[in-house]
Amino acid sequence: MNLSANYMGISLKNPLVASASPLTYTLDGVRRLAASGVGAIVMHSLFEEELVSDAEHQARLLEAGSESFAESLSYFPDTLAPKASKHYLGLLERAVNAVEVPVIASLNGATPGGWTTHARDMENAGATAIELNIHMIPVGPGIDGRGVEDLHVEILQQVKAVVSVPIAIKLSPYFSSVGEMASRLDKAGADGIVLFSRFMHPRIDPESLEVIPSVGLSDPAESRLPQTWVALLYGRLEATIVAAGGVEQADDVVSYILAGADAVMTASALLRHGPGYAENLLDGLARWMARKGFDALDQVRGMLAVQSSSDETTWERTQYVDALRAANANLQGPW
């Protein structure tokens, strides 16, 4: 059975990618993921807030020292890499050397500053590719939507200009036109489009009268939105398409590939069941292919995608109406 896949020009032994999660905070976790058989590993994100905090702290130290000693700058190394960055790059380099599967670095931020420097450092540390997770929700009423879109393109172009490894954009589902945004990023040089990033919304606790940070694992129902967009974008982009969210069973992996995904990411299932659960997902995929008479993923990929000759709006509207009709029929009863 040939499960090999291609992600941004990177050859993978299979389409299952372990996405960013707490499992990649340690070298042992990275090794366990690799041993489970995944095709690639995305490291946890290096956050802009960590870098800004470290930089501000170092700036205060330098300012205080320079006021006291004329030659105080000689006490500091030439390269003042923030602590968070040094730790991340060290772990990334050890991970790349410890496992044989591709290791993809991840940057999570909201502004253009600093992306290029840290992307270059990640490439130098051995990252096979870099995933840009641009976490920006235009929550203020005065924030222009087109400006947010332009910012994504600007960040991508800046990073592409200074590194040679493939660059993926992990896209938000909250654009007014996801298809047009994906197309703009594709034309701007994105090597991969990941659909979609998950936002960890806080909850309001009526007893403590506090806003509580809340992180929940995904469930299979969450796969429907990215699955729809994978099917709509298949064959319309030069960039490879990666599905993310809601993978719990092998059938979820199969469905994404039928929709047209080049690779499928999972984190929640591996956190819920342990890294070794990847073997279950891959075994289930292989068994399904054998049962259906397929020998390679290329025979499966995009079978249920929206054909390029189809009208996407009509297709989506038809699915919407059919779903409502089916729901109404199922809910009819003696009442």
UniProtKB/TrEMBL annotation:
It holds the Pfam family DHO_dh. Its cofactor is FMN. Keywords: Flavoprotein, FMN, Oxidoreductase, Pyrimidine biosynthesis. SUPFAM superfamilies: FMN-linked oxidoreductases. Signal peptide: none annotated. The keyword Oxidoreductase applies. Residues 4-289 form the Dihydroorotate dehydrogenase catalytic domain. Pathway: Pyrimidine metabolism; UMP biosynthesis via de novo pathway. It comes from the Bacteria. This is Dihydroorotate dehydrogenase-like protein. It comes from Ferrimicrobium acidiphilum.
